[in-house]
Amino acid sequence: MEISFAGKQALVTGAGKGIGRATALALARCGARVTAVTRTQADLNSLVQECPAIVPVCVDLADWAATEAALKDVGPIDLLVNNAGCAVLQPFLEVTPDQFDLLFNVNVKAVLHVSQMVAIGMKARGSGGSIVNVSSQASQRALRDHAVYCATKGALDMLTKVMALELGPHQIRVNSVNPTVVMTKMGRLGWSDPEKARNMKSRIPLGRFAEEEDVVNSILFLLSEKSSMVNGVALPVDGGHLAC
Ligand code: NAP
User: Does the CB atom of residue 170 touch ligand 1 within 6 A?
Assistant: First the structure.
């Protein structure tokens, strides 16, 4: 399936590492003009070195005012990928308020904020658009030591549905991808222990974790016109984990 984003403007958050970085590079390869947002300047430097056409924006998305200032001049955006996310592992009885606030700020509140900023422009131009939120299988499965992370992704799935409902009439589609484990920096945090990894893989019918490319391909599909009637879905990229 050939997908072209020629003439489209895309914005990807959390584009410094992992799934977001791979998504930004894939969008650029498909012809989009890509704005890459993340909080570590060194990652942006190496990204621009790899793909000089990418426009870098360095900001901590947990900071509402800084995000407002950093993104106010990015210009019209047609395709938005809310990918930035963080995970902190704490047993439920040891969850701390600072970690609760951090995870909800980045994984939920920043998605709402960046989407508002982008969708206001999409609505005003009347040109429609597509937004993909990077959620997780953790939105629908209880994972030990992931109480707050699971709660943020559950909230994100419902935010996705309401955005789809309210933005749909403006021809702005909003969907999520819900991957299983991907061995990025975040994936290694939770799943480097071979016993835990074996146990999780045994509950994935395809018997393996996802690769970055598996997730990127689903994001590209949801951004593209190939999914022009798909709105408000949470698409598992999980080898069948959520089916059983
Ligand atoms: P990753 O390798 O840790 O990359 C996350 C990226 O987001 C990094 O560039 C990070 O920057 C950036 N980021 C985090 N907090 C930020 C903030 N406050 N402001 C700006 N940028 C920020 O993670 P990943 O595995 O690619 O995860 C990407 C998305 O997939 C997340 O939403 C995650 O929840 C979801 N997901 C991951 C997995 C998995 O197993 N890996 C599974 C399901 C869903 P810094 O490195 O500078 O902090």
Answer: no
Q: 39 CB under 6 A from ligand 1?
A: yes
Domain at 9-182+212-237, CATH homologous superfamily: NAD(P)-binding Rossmann-like Domain (3.40.50.720)
Is 153 considered catalytic here? yes
CB 239 within 8 A of CB 210: yes
The mean pLDDT value for 44-60 works out to 98
Tell me the average pLDDT across 153-166.
Answer: 98
Instruction: From the CA of 179, give the closest atom in ligand 1.
Output: 43
**pLDDT on residue 1:** 73
CA 119, 127, 84 angle in degrees (round to 5)?
35
Mean pLDDT score of the chain: 97
Please tell me if the CB atom of residue 108 comes closer than 6 angstroms to any atom of ligand 1. Answer: no
- Give the residue extent of every domain in the chain: 9-182+212-237
Six-digit token pair at 159?
Answer: 């935010």
Question: What predicted TM-score, i.e. pTM, was given to this entire model?
Answer: 0.98
State how far the Cα of 133 lies from the Cα of 83, in Å rounded to an integer.
6
